[in-house]
């Protein structure tokens, strides 16, 4: 799926850079362009693509210091500048736009939903979010920002793929030290998903195309992305169990949003050498995904790659009813209450005190 990436805020910019690097390294060519947007000049310096510094008049290139309302305000004021940098980049071949942001800070959490809304108004292609949830030991400001942003971002984008920063943290590793590793894990998942619609080598029996990604995300709301890989035997017949077990691992232990398995729709992509991919294994794995997610809309396909390994990438669409998300929302609501902010009923933050997740879609 030919995609344009827009990284908003520090985390958004860094993750976008990782996505661009991964796509280049693998030679996929699915990422057709990238732009970085930030209120902090220093965070834009290392990005190897076009950048836009917004809100200079308000924060003088220093960032918004975790104030997501200010982040949203700045983006409202400068949307035109950001859209101007996209002119000529959203060519006929572009099939989707991803707005990438950390939801715990101010620039990304406030700015990304505003930008998604404006992009959806201007362009016909789907506008997706790729949002990062703060880890559970980050401070309450991060939790509240993410809680508020999550709901708005999911509403304004055509779907929001979530990454929980706790999902890829190894035991005992500090979160900050682990960011690069987390970004690599996310880039692999998202990079393979985007590239799956672009045939790279050979032609598999049932190759995935972009419309399957779009259809899996069609119900909107929150999505999760899982991945796992294992050594492949040369003969397809010997790999039936491998395909099933990597698929289970992708969903159960390799997901960007762990424990979010109750889904509206799913897409299973099996990547590997076409001669090593067993049809029977793919069918069984697909059945397993149907049972695990409770969804009857499970699509599947191959991604032919010359590799001695087999990988399963699983995109789950419409996972907002998951316990994991509920526990995050509880955490954000608690943080908000403990900050004793005196929100009124008209304040969007007040909606986060509600347990009613159906509001998301
Ligand atoms: N996965 C990942 N998360 C990150 C990274 N950098 C920061 N974060 C997370 O993103 C959140 C902070 O967002 P930032 O992107 O730093 O903030 P910002 O949007 O630039 O906003 P301000 O700094 O307030 O202007 C926190 O929850 C961090 O845990 C990164 O490189 N990778």
TrEMBL record:
It comes from the Archaea. The keyword GTP-binding applies. Keywords: Cell cycle, Cell division, Cell shape, Cytoplasm, GTP-binding, Nucleotide-binding. One of its GO terms (cellular component) is cytoplasm. It is found in: Cytoplasm. PROSITE patterns: TUBULIN (PS00227). GTP binds at residues 10-14, 106-108, 138, 165, 183. Its main location: cytoplasm. Involved in cell shape control. Belongs to the CetZ family. PANTHER family: CELL DIVISION PROTEIN FTSZ-RELATED (PTHR30314), TUBULIN-LIKE PROTEIN CETZ (PTHR30314:SF10). This is Tubulin-like protein CetZ. It comes from Halobellus salinus. The gene is cetZ.
